[in-house]
Specification:
GO biological process, one term: rRNA processing
Radius of gyration: 27 Å
Mean pLDDT: 82
CATH superfamily of the largest domain: K Homology domain, type 1
Subcellular location: Nucleus, Nucleolus
GO molecular function: RNA binding
CATH class of the largest domain: Alpha Beta
Number of domains: 3
Family: Belongs to the KRR1 family.
Helix content: 25-40%
Low-confidence stretches: none
CATH architecture of the largest domain: 2-Layer Sandwich
Organism: Zingiber officinale (Ginger)
Structural class: alpha+beta
Largest sheet: 3 strands, antiparallel
Order of helices and strands: EEEHEEHHHH
Amino acid sequence: MLSASSRRFNITTRGRSISRFNITMCKKHKGKQDKPKPWDEDPNIDHWKIEKFDPSRNESGMREVSSFSTLFPQYLEKYMQEAWPMVKNALKEYRVSCELNLVEGSMMVSTSRKTKDPYIIMKATDLIKILSRSIPAPQAIKILNDEMQCDVIKIGNLMRSKERFVKRRERLLGPNLSTLKAIEILTGCYILVQVLLLI
């Protein structure tokens, strides 16, 4: 609960008062919710630990079916056909169905009534998104783990000059991809610089 106390101020120039205004200052009252909780100071509790999802928390499964789809480029068509059984098996563990449509060039993931983890559809969406950007399937499947995150950083529009952009991208890759490997080792991340779409 907040209590307000107001003060009045006058601004004067050369002896004349030009404006008057009130400033309201708020002071917070301490209530029951502000008392320290026993788990706040417990040294045995790791507040940063990400707990693995337990299927027993959601016995009944999902009430609604959610689905997401994304398109992939034509040059990935053959690779998608080869890698799709691996992707399908990985998603089957989480009871998420997936569909590869080679006519439209699209991938779709959807939950079912048996899906337990409510957040797995977001992870599956990330999976098809990074697969469509040429990430190898064994690396892409790792995103389904709770500890893993992914991000797509678009660097194509950072430079006006195409020649300067190509030079900077080459500097990021380094000779024989040495700079990129060094960044991967330092950050502990898998990094892919997509070259085909940027030329």
